[in-house]
Amino acid sequence: MGELLLKNITIRYGGTPVIRDFNLEVNDGEMVALLGPSGTGKTTVLKAVAGLIRPHRGQIFIDGQPVNHLPPEKRSAVMVFQKSLLFPFLNVAQNIAFGLRMQGLPGRDARQKIQEIMELTELAGLQQRKVHELSGGQQQRVSLARALVLKPAILLLDEPLSNLDANLRQQMRELIQDIQAATRITTLFVTHDQAEALMISHRVGLLLDGRLRQVGEPRDLFYRPVDPAVARFFGGCNFIRGRIQDGHFHSEFATVPTSHPNGNGHLRTAAIRPEDVVITSESSHNLPGRVQKINFEGSTSRVWVQCQGNCFVVLTADADFAPGQKVGLQLPPEKIRIFPAEE
Amino acid sequence: MRTLNRNITAAALITSVVLPFAVLIMWSFSTRWFYPQLWPEQWGLRAWHYVFNTAGTQIIAGLVQSMLVALATAGISVVLGVPAGRALGLYDFKAKDTISVILMLPVIVPPLCVAMGLHLWFIRLELAETFIGVVLVHLTFCLPYSVFVMWGVFSNYNPDYENQARSLGANSRQIITQVMLPLTLPGIVVAGLFSFLLSWSQYLSTLIIGGGRVTTLPILLFALMGSGDRPVAAAVSLVFVAPAFVALLFSARYLGGKSIAGVR
């Protein structure tokens, strides 16, 4: 069992609020990513759940029980820090055994558990290694194993992949995913990498400026952002403005049927993702534009197109565009997302 | 360049450590050695015989006294130095600069002044001529060093180790004994060693506060030097140096930054 509920959490660092009115529910066995640019207080949330920081306001529940008053060592939420923080005076097995030893678990039971967890984290055979003899990835796995061996209700991971290079990150990500699937341990993990969050988690919460902007399945956040800030974070950077009239969103670029009933006459912002814009060298039946800049990114190219005073970013598989070239753009209405409220 | 460096190191070591020691050893084994001669005229074990037999009980008593004072001083200075260094190294507060100046004072002010000044107070507090009094006056010189050493250690200390341990279920006592002390052990050994050696070599303050009642080895040594018996003084000096040397050897692996690396 491991259910986490954060209710109206506000956390301040000397007067200035870092986290404001934060609400999040993590279900049993779920893996939720807390995503946001660096410095938005993601780690602060983890520390609050772990009990290392006391929230200024709000309540934290683990398995339905309020835990605000409990010290970290009494909470069944274990945090794994961004740095692996392995104790240099202990070897690998002793590091993993640390939490069990603190609980006073007898040696034989502990050995059994350590053995299991070392196999799960692909560390078998490294028991006697000194910490400084391990590679970065191994250190990260030991620090993960050190938390997992305690079988906490909630596992809190703070940027577990950020200190690894690209290849290792991929492996570690899969490992975390596999372990989470195998143990079904409720996991809240923090990252600034949107791809990581989208790939690894069941649900994602986007934290911007100390506020949780949107929580949902990865696809929801990516394709149905609630506001322009969320869309911008996920790279949906083509915004168009228009008015709602008779159930349609009218702008100079497109007219889109909309279900927002009471927005008549209101100014609204809509967005379309760069990969959804269709670009052709044919400009007659489309929105005419001129290529400003092109970045070749391998399987795709990113093209900046100036079009009626608006600059569109287009992601296309076709690399045959040159700066200055006249092109035509199509904005498929079904791909245009109209934001419910004005920014 | 390498060889030059090595030669300079060797030369410095020989002139500053080996030569004085060689002379001391020669003195202790000589029975007659007068001014113009380069070598003693007569060799003999008279001085060592004196040290181990005639004055044996006195010197052993002095050795024990010195050891007790130095151990007590080092112990107390570490016990106080660790929390003080932690506070100074980890937390920011207003009076930090002032405190560092105050800590330096006993080191800056001549020991004679400190000891003389404290003597008056110690007489009133009935601490003069007592073991505790001597330990206290030694602490005025040792404590700044151990606080400074631990200050340095804790400025390079990552408190997230403790947060991690806490999250893994360690309570406050376990965090101190299982995390903080092992992590800072090299620094603690250095601080203890400094204090031990400093206390071990105190003469003036011991003389003033101890008033001749607390006869540590340096007090005996000076008495023997005063009597003009060079070979005996040399032998006693060697006895005096030996424990400090052993202490240094045992803690050598903690000296230098290497063992503290990895804490951050």
Oligomerization category of the chains in this entry: heterodimer
Q: How would you spell out the order of helices and strands of chain B?
A: HEEHHHHHHHHHH
Order of helices and strands of chain A: EEEHEEEHHHEHEHEEHHEEEEEEEEEE
- Report how far apart the termini of chain B are: 34 Å
Rg of chain A from C-alpha positions?
24 Å
SS class of chain A: alpha+beta
- Structure summary, number of beta strands of chain B: 2
Secondary structure: helix percent of chain B? over 70%
Overall mean confidence score, pLDDT of chain B = 86
The major sheet of chain A is characterized as: 6 strands, mixed
Number of helices of chain B: 11
The main β sheet of chain B shows up as: 2 strands, antiparallel
Strand order of the largest sheet of chain A: 6-7-8-3-9-10
Characteristics:
heterodimer; A: 343 residues; alpha+beta; six-stranded mixed sheet; five-stranded antiparallel sheet; 8 helices; 34% strand; elongated; B: 264 residues; mainly alpha; two-stranded antiparallel sheet; 11 helices; 2% strand; globular; disordered C terminus
Molecular structure report:
The complex is a heterodimer of chains A (about 350) and B (about 260). With about 350 residues, chain A is of the alpha+beta class. In chain A, about 25% of the residues lie in helices and about 35% in strands. In chain B, strands 1-2 form a two-stranded antiparallel sheet. Helices cover about 75% and strands about 0% of the residues of chain B. The model of chain B is unreliable at about 260-264 (pLDDT under 50).
Strands, helices and their partners?
The complex is a heterodimer of chains A (about 350) and B (about 260).
Chain A: E1 4-13, E2 16-26, E3 31-35, H1 42-50, E4 57-62, E5 65-66, E6 77-80, H2 92-103, H3 107-120, H4 136-148, E7 154-158, H5 166-183, E8 186-191, H6 194-200, E9 203-208, E10 211-216, H7 218-223, H8 228-233, E11 238-245, E12 248-250, E13 255-257, E14 267-272, E15 278-280, E16 287-296, E17 301-307, E18 310-316, E19 326-330, E20 337-338
Parallel strand pairs in A: 3-8, 3-9, 6-7, 7-8
Antiparallel strand pairs in A: 1-2, 1-4, 4-5, 9-10, 11-12, 11-14, 12-13, 14-20, 15-19, 16-17, 16-19, 17-18
Helix pairs in contact in A: 2-3, 2-4
Chain B: H1 2-28, E1 30-32, E2 42-43, H2 46-54, H3 56-90, H4 96-108, H5 111-124, H6 131-155, H7 160-167, H8 172-200, H9 204-210, H10 217-226, H11 230-251
Antiparallel strand pairs in B: 1-2
Helix pairs in contact in B: 1-11, 2-11, 3-6, 3-8, 3-10, 4-6, 5-6, 5-9, 6-8, 6-9, 7-8, 8-11, 10-11
